[in-house]
Amino acid sequence: MSEFSGKVALITGTTGIALATARRLASGGAAIVACGIVEEANAALQAELADALVLSADVSVPDQVRAAVAAGVDRFGGLDIIVNSAAVHPYGTATSTDFETWNKAMSVNVGSIYLTAHFGIPEMIKRGGGAIVNVSSVQGFACQQNVAAYATTKGAIHTLTRSLALDYARSGIRVNSVSPGSIRTPILEKAARGENGTDADVEAAYKRFGEAHPIGRIGEPEEVAELIAFLCSSKAGFCTGADYKIDGGLTAGIGVK
Questions:
Q1: Predicted TM-score (pTM) above 0.90
Q2: Could you tell me which residues are beta bridge partners of residue 147?
Q3: Residue 194, C-beta contacts closer than 8 angstroms, at least 6 positions apart
Q4: Residues near 74 by Cβ (< 8 Å), separated by ≥ 6?
Q5: pLDDT (tens digit, 9 = 90+) per residue, 219-242?
Q6: Mean predicted confidence (pLDDT) in 21-37
Q7: 58, 122, 149, 248: which could join 215 in a potential S-S bond, CB 3.0 to 4.6 Å?
Q8: Nearest-10 Cα torsion for 17, 19, 22, 28
Q9: pLDDT at residue 200 is higher than 90
Q10: 8-181+219-245 carries CATH number 3.40.50.300
Q11: In DSSP terms, which residues pair with 246 in a beta bridge?
Q12: Are the C-beta atoms of 124 and 233 separated by less than 8 Å?
């Protein structure tokens, strides 16, 4: 029997780490419900995983999350796993970030985790428990300049993860987070392109980013997906309320040489 046979997984996002996670959990036998706003990515994932339920949904909107959970339960009979990977990454300081951008970052990066828990946990309890994994970032521990909103949301994810873990441990629900370093995703590509847009040498930027990590390279989405899959599996049955860094050693040292 496959490790996730009979399990139903809700994943927010359909690109980057979310895409790799959908592939990984599906390969382990899970039924996949994926929610994204990038229509091309949604269509590509649906074509690749024909048995999945891929929905166009803004996971910062309560009614759309409620509908996504209900659709997944209706299609597959329940909910066992939630992986919160959807995110936006605005740049700016506290003074240069406008209030609308600040609120958008909070509602997508943190609010969506609240919403999937709010609507999803009751369904998980019906199944006797489950696992939730929230994708945070090393920027929840040590951040760059000019990322006030993004870094704040990633720190908040760590706190919300602990809160959910404590509140629902006796319901058989384990809640953990992962904090990646630089990973080859659309968000990192945007950073690599910077102000140069289509003229940017993305691979050169990735090399430069990778050199900041002691391991000497950036990470791949599939590597993060493997960690997420472990935390969703029965092998991690005693793991809850914790964050797991997957950052190539980035936060292990200090920058002084």
A1: yes
A2: 92
A3: 200, 205
A4: none
A5: 999 999 999 999 999 999 999 999
A6: 98
A7: 248
A8: -80
A9: no
A10: no
A11: 180
A12: no
